[in-house]
Amino acid sequence: MIVIPLPLTLIRLILGPLALLIALYNAPRSIFAAILIAGLLSDYFDGAIARRLGVARPWLRRLDSTVDIVFYVSIAAVAYILETATFVTVIVAIAFFIGAEAICIATSLIKFRSLPGMHCCSAKAYGGARTNPPLRGVA
What we know:
- The chain is mainly α.
- The model is unreliable at 129-139 (pLDDT under 50).
- Helix 2 runs antiparallel to helix 3.
- The chain is flat and about 45 Å long.
- It folds into 2 domains: 1-83, no CATH class; 90-129, no CATH class.
- The chain starts with a helix and ends in a 12-residue tail after the last helix.
- It has helices at 5-23, 29-53, 58-82, 84-89, 91-112, 121-127.
């Protein structure tokens, strides 16, 4: 049953760089809205479906976190390309967010010698998402 959540995760791996590529060619902005909505929906439903089907696995969560980074960094780059002036006005907040993420990753690497598990309850609370108990043995 992993055939349902896995493609939903992998679609973001395609959508993020695709959005970046078409931003460089000045595509209509409605395309970016569709890509962002599709990415957000796949980000929510891949985990929800995996939990519902009982196929949530540590490697799938790690893949989801990695794909999220690719997708959201690509979307941030698109925002910079299309709205540089607006992007620059919020650069302090963006730098703070990136710094906080870097500290989290560095702390996890130093303390646990692994990347942080971004699907834990505290990460979901931070993101405002519904919390579910983490899988036992998952960092």
